[in-house]
Amino acid sequence: MTDLDTVLGNAGPTGLKERIAAELEAVRERSLAYTDTDDEMLVRQHSPLMSPLVWDLAHVGNYEELWVLREVGGIEPLRPEIDHLYDAFKYPRKDRPSLPLLGPAEARKYISGVRGRVLDVLDLVDLTDPAPLRSGGYVFGLVLQHEHQHDETMLATLQLSRRPGLVRDGELPPGRPAGEPEVHIPAGVFTMGTDTVAWAYDNERPAHRIYLPGYWIDRHPVSNGAYMEFVEAGGYRDPRWWLPQGWEWAERAGVEAPLFWARDGDTWWRIRFGREEPVPPDEPVQHVSWYEADAYARWAGKRLPTEAEWEKACGGRGYPWGEADPGHLGRWANLGHRAARPAPVGAFPDGASPYGVEQLIGDVWEWTDSWFQPYPGYRCFPYEEYSKVFFGETYRVLRGGSWATHPSAVRTTFRNWDYPIRRQIFAGFRCARSED
């Protein structure tokens, strides 16, 4: 959703409630589809980097209970004894399998009971109430985006499981010749962040004006084929291209290529949701860490864009193509698990920004050169553990969403962040360079 006045003016509170109810139904269908498997698959930890799938399933319900039922609805806790189990800050992911978690059947029953009461609260709440959690249905946007984000996390867990039979192969438009590989973004002042996106998170606010010198940015994300050239040129064996801490990490972890890649003779293969297949050279590379992206950029004589440069390249709109919600049409971007892979480079010319930069939204999260820091005038809302506790020089910012990101959980101002060593996420990058 974009401007709140537009939302309420076009649909009115009743129409907005109907849309929220439909979105709640859709996200729950998605969550249940990703966990529609045997109990052993749900309770097993497939990687110490990730929670068991059953933890994510119950966690989205517990989060929804906390914010909608307790904070807005004033309803007594349904299962207060499990709150600590599903507090994302209480126990690290690697320790969660040892907790007395709800089993798969009990988790499904719990989240269903929460959802029924949430719909009752939605029916009664006044969305024109100026209270921040109620105004424009903000609390419902909060839980919707949160659940979609966990659905993407569950997809990453399923990919790490390498279990066959999980791939979804929808149709994607073909790529096309890339044309000029770089786009020039002229120097000037632009507005970063937002004050008007109704369901934006606190870290996207406030809107503020900043000046950027002119720069060049890649028209498309870096492709598998281009990244293969770096690998085959010895990029993983040459410390010249790596920051010292990145080189130390790559050496210690034995990293030689993107995660899930392996070479057999002259062919690079990848594992995608349990299926072994040749790496398609025309897709954006994914499953690379920030350190790998940074090393490639140095090898190519470029650098990673700052998040301000990335956002300016979008052209100052809600989405690079304008204000139209991407929905599920697939005209402008590859989002919402339309297919379990990035679209080929050049597949979405209609999604280009006014500057001509393409595939900024969808396909792969894009690493930037920026640390996750608050904007000037930042105000925490509604809780510190969403953004504030992560600010500093520990996490790098990613932008733009991936093929697995739901359309409601991405926009040009949306900020994601992760450790620079993370590779299990659906992350790639594009390069930039300063004016000569």
Please give a structural write-up.
- With 436 residues, this protein is of the alpha+beta class.
- It has two domains: 4-161, dinb family like domain (Four Helix Bundle (Hemerythrin (Met), subunit A)); 182-224 and 255-434, paralog of FGE (formylglycine-generating enzyme) (Alpha-Beta Complex), CATH 3.90.1580.
- Helix content is 31%, strand content 12%.
- The chain has a four-stranded mixed β-sheet. It has a three-stranded antiparallel β-sheet with strand order 1-4-12, covered by helices on one side. Strands 5-6-7 form a three-stranded antiparallel β-sheet, with no helix packed on it.
- Strand 5 (261-264) and strand 6 form a beta hairpin.
- Helix 1 (4-34) runs parallel beside helix 5 and helix 3 runs parallel beside helix 4.
- It is globular, with a radius of gyration of 21 Å.
- The protein starts with a helix and ends with a strand.
- Mean pLDDT is 94; it is low at 1-10.
